[in-house]
Amino acid sequence: MSRERGVLFDMDGVLVDSGPLHKESWRRIAMDAGRPMEDSFFDRTFGMRNEEILEELLGPDLEGARKAELGRRKEEVYRELARERLVAAPGAADLVRALKEAGFRTALASSGPRANVELVLDVTGLGEMMDAYVCAEDVERGKPDPQVFLEAARRLDLEPSRCVVVEDALVGVEAARRAGMKVVGVAGEEERKAVLREADRVVSSLEELSPRVFEELLEVPWET
Q: Is CATH 1.10.357 the right assignment for the domain spanning 19-85?
């Protein structure tokens, strides 16, 4: 069996605790559009592409130019907040570093726009440890379609079956499954863990993970 293997990280809610910043950004956009946003709406749509979220929030008949304008504004607000507040999630840097030392290839696979991805990689310092990244501009279809993960595997020159995805959203878990990959769910709250029940393993934090966990998921004997 091949020893080549990779770990594909979702970005928001996994490598960075950006959920509160995205929620605040969407809340501002929703208020400006005269359509207040409930927390339940954000929780249900987190991980989807902006155009899909806007259609759910403001209706499927939302004009294309208006949709693009609101999407751009939302990301501008997010990046303003992120530059001031964003830090890597607890355990993120240590885990990625340990995976690299153990011979894993690593990639970030996100539905976010390139500007957001590059900002996160820069401000957290995680960019130096990633072999590749895939963002919204690199794919035609968002999660739960598996395209983002399949493209990340391709860029790592790995078969999908040799990759494990780390996700925090149900649509991401579904996308990983459809890509033929193992998946680890990250959820800090018990109710969120239940949502990710289709994952192969669910943890509360990246601090609970190590290279051994990923080796076991890929059924490759651990070498001591």
A: no
Whether the bond into 144 is cis, omega within 30 of 0 = yes
Is CATH 2.60.40.1180 the classification given to domain 6-17+87-217?
Answer: no
Does the active-site annotation cover 12?
Answer: yes
Q: How far is CA 137 from the centre of its chain?
A: 15
The residues pairing with 183 across neighbouring beta strands, listed in sequence order, are: 165
43 tagged catalytic: no
**pLDDT, average across residues 156-160:** 98
Q: Could you report the per-residue pLDDT of 60-106, keeping only the tens digit for each?
A: 888 899 899 999 999 899 899 998 889 999 999 999 999 999 999 99
d(CA 132, CA 127): 9
The answer for residues whose C-beta is within 8 angstroms of residue 184's C-beta and 6 or more apart is 164, 165, 166, 167, 199, 200, 201, 202, 203, 209, 213, 214, 217
pTM: 0.81
Tell me if 156 sits within 8 A of 107, measured CB to CB. Answer: yes
